[in-house]
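Hi C.,

You asked whether I'd gotten around to modeling the 280-residue construct. I have! Everything is below, sequence then structure, no commentary in between.
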Amino acid sequence: MDDMILEIRHLNKAFGNHEVLRDIDFTVEKGDVISIIGASGSGKSTLLRCINLLETPTSGEILYHGQNVAGHKVNAAEYRSHVGMVFQSFNLFNNMTVLENCMVGQIKVLKKDKETARKRAMEYLEKVGMAPYIQAKPRQISGGQKQRGAIARALAMEPEVLLFDEPTSALDPEMVGEVLSVMQDLAQEGMTMLVVTHEMAFARDVSSQVVFMHQGVRHLRGGHAGAGFRQSPETGDAGLPLPVPQELNPVFPVPGGSASGNFFVFVASTTCSCGKISLE
């Protein structure tokens, strides 16, 4: 129980009459790397935004070390220093250098002096390979470099948990590998992470658990992903060792297969190959 960091209880989120999240429950323990996968529009990013308090849940609880942070009396800035977030679109301050981006949160939120903030920022910029670009403005560096800078900024706050919202989806294909490499290193070092991703190889190789969402509902939660992904002999695509609920059968059938066949496709995105869910 001491390892429990976050517990999501009966979380719901609606925009008007549109239910985006419905009765979400799961827990996050120290050292977990949880990949959240599913089709676009299934509520994955909204779930992360609720956990980071960028969206206010309609109902339900988000417990951080047993305290419900979804209430109105929580200091959101302080909470976010413990539960950091890396965004799809980087969200670096364009008027600041890479180094200044990594210092500002420490100074404003953690109340660190400039020298301490600079030392810590440099430590993490070096860690992600961004030391040569510390004086560059965001417009002067590539997308992959921006995202690595954003990861260093989040790490500089020394959070307990890092949330990644599709961190590679805005990158050119050749930039994806450098960001995933940093994330893999963090996972191996024991960083607790929740990752919304369409990168099935990353989910297979790094995740301790995989959450599959469909239409705002957490349908499936798998155990150790790396130990259980299987290869389809027909295509070689990795499969998720998770039971498929009956209501998903008509939605994700493999072309040419029956609704009760051995494999079901989940649509990860319109631009990447589909993964497969094994029923074995």
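If it helps when you're writing up: The helical segments are 44-51, 76-82, 98-108, 114-127, 143-156, 173-188, 200-206, 225-228.

Thanks,
B.
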